[in-house]
Design goal:
P-loop_NTPase, 8-stranded parallel beta sheet, globular, Rossmann fold, single chain, alpha/beta
Length: 225
């Protein structure tokens, strides 16, 4: 993580687990002592929202920026002007959770000019078990649509192949194979392999990318009070 750029943009297909990765990444930055902010730009058709963790983030001193219209279930595309603060203030290590399709990624495109002046990483979170990213050509097509909508370039891949609570090591290996195919085709690195902490001891030795252990924080809408 120390080699990642100050601004980390997290994107991927709906159900890829991009928000879970973004939340865990943000917590890890804060635990390592960095002044940290998370920006919830997933404002179109949201399902899992990073801002639902706002109390936990605030407890750790993490700045949370989301829609200027408060409410966990609201889908109003009202962007907070505070986003400009963490883009420009180099004292912040910033994570941006972006919408999971071309339409959702257009919210990021609004900040195209500012991002082009800063060093950033844009991680495409890939779940090989999702129908629209289940093979190389489909995954590349989806990745390109995110780039087009956001007006930014993907810099690395993240293997987060899972089946929620039914995930097996075989799923992770399946995702690795697909990620390596996409990485070779596009000339991108496979930066992280996301693994639920309970599966770490079962992993083989030939895992590509940095192993990124996670806890499960995000709740489905029907699990929330």
């Amino acid at each position: 993580m120390k080699k990642d750029k100050r601004i980390r943009i997290i994107t991927g297909h709906y159900g890829s687990g991009k928000t879970e990765f973004a939340v865990n990444y943000t917590f890890k930055l804060a635990r390592e002592g960095y002044k940290t902010a998370i920006v919830d730009l997933d404002i179109v058709n949201p399902y899992f929202r990073s801002r639902q963790m706002e109390p936990e983030f605030q407890e750790m001193g993490i700045k949370v920026i989301s829609s200027s219209v408060k409410g966990l279930s609201g889908d109003l595309p009202a962007l907070s002007p505070e986003i400009n603060t963490v883009l420009e203030d180099k004292s912040f290590e910033t994570v941006i959770d972006v919408g999971g399709d071309k339409v959702g990624a257009t919210a990021l495109g609004r900040y195209h000019d500012k991002l082009d002046k800063e060093e950033y990483d844009m991680f495409f979170v890939l779940n090989a078990n999702r129908p629209l990213t289940a093979d190389k050509d489909s995954a590349i097509r989806y990745l390109r649509s995110i780039e087009q909508g956001s007006r930014q370039k993907i810099t690395a891949l993240v293997n987060n192949t899972h089946l929620c609570g039914e995930t097996r090591v075989e799923d992770i290996i399946k995702g690795q194979e697909l990620c390596l195919q996409v990485a070779e085709e596009l000339g991108l690195p496979l930066k992280y392999t996301v693994v639920y902490k309970g599966l770490i001891d079962q992993l083989p030795d030939n895992i590509s990318g940095e192993i990124f252990p996670i806890d499960i924080f995000m709740k489905k809408p029907w699990e929330m009070e």
